[in-house]
Amino acid sequence: MWEKFKASTIKEYLLLLRDKAGLAMLFIMPVALVLLMTLLQDSTLRLLEEKRTPILLINHDADTFGIHISRGLEQAGYFDVHTSLGDKPLSEEQLRHEVLEGHFRVGIIIRKGTSTVLRNKIKKEIEKQFPAEEAPLFEIDTVGLKLPSMIEVFFDPVIKSDFRHAIVNALHGFSSAIEARMIFSIYTELFTDIVDIESTGSEGFSDLTVFDEQYATDQQSRIIPNSTQHNVPAWTVFAMFFIVIPLAGNIVKERESGLSLRLKTMPGSNLPVILGKASVYFIVGIVQAIFMLLIGVYILPLFGTPALTFGSGLVPLIFITLAVSLAASGYGILIGTVATSQEQSSIFGSISVVILAALGGIWVPTFMMSDLMVKASKVSPLNWALTAYYDILLRNTNLLTVLPQLLMLLAFFVVCISIAFLYNRYKKSLT
Hints:
Helix content: 55-70%
Number of strands: 6
Strand order of the largest sheet: 2-1-5-6
Order of helices and strands: HHEHEEEHEHEHHHHHHHHHH
Radius of gyration: 33 Å
């Protein structure tokens, strides 16, 4: 049994060293992939943080509401407000045309008399809070209460709905703050009339609530989620599972050349042969993972991206990497055992890994998927591996937390090896 295992391991090792194209695919392609995807995502995130959305604004209301909306849009930090085109004032027809043509994503028109209409509506609502015999408390223009919308917002037809909602929510936030200020001002005037005491006014009722935005990370590790922390583990898992292609191809090549038949003539079970193959690619997977993680620590920072940090999760990281490498090698052996040709093994192996990667959240994060797809992602071993890596690298968890994923990956390896072994026995019984 040991001789079979030893012969299979040495043979697989020599085949791998001679396969220069396979080695390049196992190491060079994943490196290029992790560099490209991390740099692309990092530059995209920085561009989104720095880039301002150009919008057109026509303010017909030279009063409180219009002035504060215009000021809020300009001071928000993420809008580039244009009130004219060239040296000429902007007309409503031009605004609609520019937005329709896609030159600007958003166009906003604030109608004349908006502040007056808003004051009248506020006063009307305040009067409703007092007994009818006390009315009227204010002089209200009832005609102005029936005016149509005060702000018109025009969107580029190709704009996505989530961006449209973000713009509208920002406008709602600005208008709510202005409405609150106007309500306070009207109440102050009413209070002054009732108690006959002159108000000194106050500007202290803005920004009373302070938001402290931070990630829910461990207080000791202070791991900050970034493009490196997300991409390196994702593409490491993807690269480790891509050993399926050369591993399955070598198994089919052995079968076609008659080498596997000679190995079967050796006494004993065929299981040591299978485990010998798995051991070589198990080591390859570990080397891949170490290589990719070191790139995240030392190479990616040279391109201006954050360095990969491990926190205190080095021990669980080692265990989960071993489990992923085992699962990937087991899957490769299963495909190589079942496939009937090299073309079949390479095509099915590559496509199945891509499908499992897409399903597992490598290409698209699972939080962006539908509920149905989130449930479906649970069947992908790449999802188990990625979830464990994220728990370790982003949440700084311990080995006990990732134990379910660890056990599932080990079970996946055992199932794949068992099916391959039983399939070999079945094929042998037919000959």
